[in-house]
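Query form — protein NAD-dependent protein deacylase

QUESTION: What is the three-dimensional structure of this chain?
INPUT:
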Amino acid sequence: MAEDERPHLVVFTGSGISAESGIQTFRASDGLWADHPIEEVATPEAWRRNPARVLQFYNLRREQVRRARPNAAHRALAALERQGFRVSIITQNIDDLHERAGSRHVLHLHGEILKARSTVDGRMQYPLPRGGIELGDICDKGSQLRPDVVWFGESVPHFGEACEIVTEADLLLVVGTSLAVMPAASLLEHAPLDAPSVLVDPEAEVLAPPGVTRISQPAGRGVPALVRHWQREGRLWVPQTLLG
Ligand code: APR
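ANSWER: The structure tokens for NAD-dependent protein deacylase are given below.
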């Protein structure tokens, strides 16, 4: 098959892109980890200690995800792809809002909340179109099911694939992430030296590493504005008018 010669937009998203859809971010003072300490709900030790609590935490979040709708940022990225741009999305998010907006190339670094997986064989995954996971729900090998999410202290199975995608970027657009979690945040270092990187985040001024262009706006405003420029001109670039 011929190589895809189109300029390649790689988008790396965090929970901030889903904030305007009503999904909580993690590290804000009113974020998810403020009420639910990581060590009680999002580590292998928490799972061993109190699986019912962990399942309940993710069951509630799954309901929140099902109620949410993609926002203008998710929709703009999907529209760009529909228009013929080459768009790859790498997301830290466990929601499915990129897919529901219509994006077709989405890699979930931290798993997907709408799937369950076996605790003895990670390849055994089950979609969860409705309901939650309860103690006693088992895989085809008879072991308890868990959410298909990556917990703190676990390896990130798709990280190598994500690095490869980033090395092929012509422009790296980062949206709504504090870049606090490794190895995900180190993805930015894999972008080619001649590919511009842009961060759209209300806190971009504080968060962006050196060399990354800052657009200090919420995703629902900053992303559609960038996309409109690209659609109008048919190329990927960083318009100076959006900065600040
Ligand atoms: N638009 C864009 N960004 C926003 C918006 C918005 N409307 N609202 C908030 N943000 C930004 C915040 O400024 C912050 O930089 O979203 C970011 C959220 O950061 P975190 O809470 O740290 O979440 P995230 O970066 O997604 O966390 C990464 O950490 O806890 C783990 O596995 C979890 O995938 C998650 C990972």
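ADDITIONAL NOTE: DSSP finds ten helices and nine strands in the chain.
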